Amino acid sequence: MTDRRRKLAALDWMVAMGADEAIGEEPVDRRKTARPAPAPESTPPPEPARAS
């Protein structure tokens, strides 16, 4: 049996046993606020043209 088939068989067994959510290796804190993305660096606006 290939590794992929073994994993699918294990998943099928878990679903048959009533598993209804996947849990990863590391806990996830969904209440933690996400950090806002940093503001993009902007160049200063050009100076207005002067009449000569």
Rg over C-alpha atoms, rounded to the nearest angstrom? 27 Å
Number of discrete helical segments = 1
Helix content: 25-40%
Which whole number gives the mean pLDDT? 84
Indicate the structural class: mainly alpha
The major beta sheet can be summarized as: none
Q: Report the end-to-end length measured between terminal Cα atoms.
A: 83 Å
Order of helices and strands: H
β-strand amount: under 5%
Shape, per Cα inertia axes: elongated
- Count of β-strands: 0
Task: State the low-pLDDT regions, or none.
Answer: none
Describe this structure in words.
With 52 residues, the chain is mainly α. The chain has one helix at 3-16. It has 1 helix and no strands. It is elongated, with a radius of gyration of 27 Å. The chain starts with a helix and ends in a 36-residue tail after the last helix. The mean pLDDT is 84.
